[in-house]
């Protein structure tokens, strides 16, 4: 049983790390949502985190499958040209380019990552309590 609990700790810890990276990526996207540039090539592209499960050879039933960040990829969405001839970053035609970032979508991603992070903290707390109770049973 304790081996299963330790695998559970490993799985939850890996999920905490992955969700933390996801939260940082969302924060970066939100921080750059209003940036402007002269050309589409210079424009910030939103980032997305790709997760991957890690198969454990010692766990043939796949009861616990840790997760890792496989990659952080740029969005394929094209920058949005906006006519702002007085903007300091405007090109010769008076356009600036802004990232195609949906603040609403990024906020939803942030809420999802936060909830997943909180759920994994709860899993770890519950596993810790079970281990403590197991130790107390052995003392009585």
From TrEMBL:
Name of the protein: Flagellar basal-body rod protein FlgC
Family note: Belongs to the flagella basal body rod proteins family.
PANTHER family reported in the protein's UniProt record: FLAGELLAR BASAL-BODY ROD PROTEIN FLGC (PTHR30435:SF2), FLAGELLAR PROTEIN (PTHR30435)
Gene Ontology cellular component list: bacterial-type flagellum basal body, rod
Key word Transferase present: no
Subunit structure: The basal body constitutes a major portion of the flagellar organelle and consists of four rings (L,P,S, and M) mounted on a central rod. The rod consists of about 26 subunits of FlgG in the distal portion, and FlgB, FlgC and FlgF are thought to build up the proximal portion of the rod with about 6 subunits each.
Source taxon at top rank: Bacteria
Signal sequence interval, chain numbering: none
UniProt-annotated location(s): Bacterial flagellum basal body
Protein keywords: Bacterial flagellum, Cell projection, Cilium, Flagellum
Span of domain Flagellar basal-body/hook protein C-terminal: 94-136
Segments forming domain Flagellar basal body rod protein N-terminal: 9-35
Main localisation: other
GO biological processes: bacterial-type flagellum-dependent swarming motility
